[in-house]
Amino acid sequence: MTSRSTTVVATLLLLTCGLLPSCDNGSDTQSKGTNAGRTGGTAVDDFLSSSKLNDSGPGSGKFVLLGGDETGIEFDNRADDIDFIAEDRASQAGLACGDVNGDGILDLFLCGMETDNRLYIGEGGFRFRDVTADSGDDLAVAGHETFGALFVDIEGDGDQDLYLGVRGADDRLYINDGRGKFTNEASQRGTTATNATSSIAAFDVEPDGDLDLYVCSHSFDPRMTNDDAMVAQGVDINSIVIRPELDLLLINDGSGKFTDGTSAAGIDGLSWSWQAMPADYNDDGYMDLFVSSDYSTNDRYYINNGDGTFTDHATTMLRRTPWFSMGCDSGDINGDGRIDLFCLDMSPNEYKASKLMSGDMYDFRDVLVNSNPQQMMHNMLQLNRGQGWMTDISSLAGVKSSEWSWTARIADLDYSGIPELFVANGYLTMTAMNVDYQNQIKQIGESQGREAVKQFMKEMGSAPAEDVIFTADSPLDYKRASGNWGMTGNTIDTGTVIDDIDGDGDLDIIANQTNGDLQVWRNELDCGNFIAVELSQDGANAFGVGSKLTAYCGDAIFADTVVIGRGIGSGVSPRVHLGLGGNTKVDRLEIRWPDGKLQTEENLDAGLLWSVRRRDNLPDFTAPSYDPMFAQADMDFSRDERDTDKEEFAAELLLPIMRSYLGGGVGVADSDLDGDLDVYFAGAAGQSGRLKLNDGSGNLESSSTAADINKRDREEMAVLWFDANGDERPDLYISNGSMEAYPDSDLYDDVIVLNMEDGLKASTVPGTNISSGSVCAADIDGDGDQDLFVAGRQVPHRFALPATSVFLRNDGKGGFSVHDFSGGQPVMGCISDAQFADMDHDGDQDLVVCEEFGTVSWLANNGGSFGAKQAVSASGMWQSLCLADLNEDGNIDIVAGNWGQNTKYHPSAEKPYTMFAGDMEGDGDRDLIEAKNKSGGGYLPGRGRSCSGYAMPSIQERFPKWDDFANASFEDIYGDPSQLPEKYEAADLHNTLFMSDGNGGFSASQLPMMAQLSPVYGILASDFDGDGDKDLLLAENYKLTQPETGRWNLGYSTMLLQDSGNWTAVDMPVAGVNIHEDARGVVECDLDADGMQDIIVTVSNGMAKRLEHSGAAGGSFNVTLAGKAGNRFGSGAVIMLALDDGSKLFRLVQAGQGYMSSYVGPQHFAIPAGRSPQALEVTWSDGSTSMAADLGGDGVTVEQ
Fold it and tell me: What is the 3-state secondary structure (H, E, C) of 603-663?
């Protein structure tokens, strides 16, 4: 990661050296609500009217930059003082737009650093007039830096007052007399904050009908303390820190006078805050608050408790935020009606720049490993998954990097119906962009002192950059706009407003450039349809600030909130613009007022400004209520993983992901033969697994007889219940793996537990001294008993090196020995999952496997001998399998879990994810080398100078400067790639569905986008909603990755419902599944014998979850198999249940299914409402068949 700490380092050095200690519109009559800039006003009734906005005519199809001669604005925001630069405060100045004189035209207030502030009155179009001197009490604030401005109606009289955040002096609160004359009443109204105000947010906290203020502070206060040292999960990150100041929450008493309510509201986090973004994120009717926070202080996600207090839920509901959070914005990015978040950092997009900024990995490693939420140095696009639970999708959406960024905006600039993401960029000091410069500053400060540091920083100059527009043709699929839609040229833009400046209906952009003229961009894009909405009501919140607007156009939804504090230090008008794309009218517009009342307007034509006044006697808004499909609860088992962070990265410093958190599984069977289902949970190293016995009602208690069946130091992985010795009792196989030990340790010996009449008999299995994972059973050789395949998951401390898997032949009595079932061709690879099924309908059990840096493939069983792997997929980082007949055609299909599309890796067949390995230093250690594929061929280093140099010290010697490394070729650093000893590739990371044609061929299709947000482990196929189609549950997340990469724990375990081959992700509150930990094994079973299938999900480093089914339409039918001796539970059978409407349902019976998990028990069929079972046929594993004649009741037992 990079360190934005250049200026922090510089400032610390300077600290050590002791440096830092009206407007009259020509009329005496106020004209609020006039239609200046509008034509053709039409009143629907007393509460609803429309106006046609000025048509600017055809344009250039881009944004056009207007000069001062066109706008009348002369404003060059200077910041030349090196002290400003050294204190990291010279780039930041905002601006605000609003109608200060009530003529219907937007006016501008421009904040200055060394330049005095300016107030410009809009005269129509893009013409403005400077009225600063004539507008009242010293709006220029000469001699002070003004960071932020917000036009806001403080006392509820219907005009726009002005709040100014001033550094080095009290904040100002200017009260508007209604005609654009301002008087500073900050001292009388309790807003004389002396914090270094960066941005201001206005919203109704309680809600009591008035607007309260949240004042962000971004102070570079020289006070340093040990008492307020940053602590992350108990780890003291810095022994000495610079102490930020608390933000302020100012509570309005209804008259426009404020008191400090910060502590009483539960706002108690120290933060380097840039911006606060109020919105109702959890959709409960109360305004919540997201606060972006710079440096190592966490962003805050304050959820409103409904009583005027807040609770910060960032650790659970966000889990990942930017490190140096800058500007943020809210809006609905995917048309689901929920409010999402976009928050910026300072991540360069270009390869060389990213290498120059990648700081020393050990400077911040403890923060990266221990912080919660984890802070990563890139933008975050937080997708609201329901009830305010967020997933950062910046990697999937392609918006992680946008240079050194300030203002973030979510705005539909072309009215396509999909909002754009706008980013204002640039920085005043080049030294912050380069680790070599940071090192020089440290050396200069130590040897030459403060003046030399300042001079060096000044000589290095600034780092202007182009602003960025991300646009999308389909939701969440963003790319940089072609030609940046005309917004070219490098600037230092911080505060930015996006609003309809010229009154023609589209959104224009104005940016406050540091050391340059104000950037005024007129929108001349070819735009789609839209509506603009202005709200009004009686009372202290006249403009309805905080109201949520939701427009419905057929099935399409467009939503936003009336938020006036948008942009770093900036503010916009309370008018809301909703892009509608091709929709020509809004069928229904819902307005949720801040006090919880709901207003509905219908049939609003597009292309108009709609003025909506609050109606009388409105109904209350009712928060969405859900009837979730499942009720989630913790189970009485927590898999507590041993912390192996230091050991793993000491052995392989450049390890992409940690390898000791891959388990563990769960197994369900009636172990004590009392008629109900029991559960075995695999234990992590240092804890025993647990056998939980069922009391018949679904209550599970630990069995004392199974307490010591495995060594506590073994890491249990897979749990397989099956009949090993033909006595019709379920036996237990436990695979042991992970990397807590080095190869050949007896900790890797697997264990077989025979379930005898006189108790459990455990013994190790010869020949299984491998770090194994998945285990599955089938009668491979046709002799009537169950043989085993034990998958080699990894070679400990040798990432990607192919492991050896083993076949175990059963002697019929539960004795197992290694056997060559593969014709002398061992199954090699990092096999992450394996299952048996008859894939080619020839009457024997074939083997399906998936692997990392390999494929999903199947091995045909030819009379007890397996052939070579037959690839089903491209190479990938495949993690898991589910075998099921998804389209009920009698063929076994495959669902395969992969890393997904929300990591830093986005390979393709042309540019696969590539990794090399070998002893690069000649010291006997194996080094890992991740590579990027260059356009046109060849490679670039995938990792930075710091971590590469620590792993391979010769790199530090050959490339002492970061610039040297950034400019070096792959060959310069590592040599000829064709000569490197090991090479691994993965071309596809999508979670994927493979549909079988019944003849060994498969057609691949990617699972929906919502199923690509996290790595997938356990997969369950079952009919959750009782409609006759199998659905899917995906167990998601992998937290322990390389620290600089960011955790992959942003999922919730996604449920997908099928409708005749079409897959739809179920909203989290509807599914009732919210597993934000690392989910692993999944098994479906009816623990409480209520006739409904519940689900058990294991968690790595957390409590296992039980998902109790709430019931589905239709009924259920259970089939119990009684196979021949040696396979009494019917492993390998396929059950076909025909219904009375002619449809057929198929169920595959396996010994080992799901990720490292197993189930032995009745096979469940969901019967759609109005249908009933008509016929049943079982095809056993040997190809023989049995029929069941009497299908009355709720189940049947079938004998072979």
Answer: EEECCEEEEEECCCCCCECCCCCCCCCEEEEEEEEEECCCCCHHHHHHHCCCCCECCCCCC
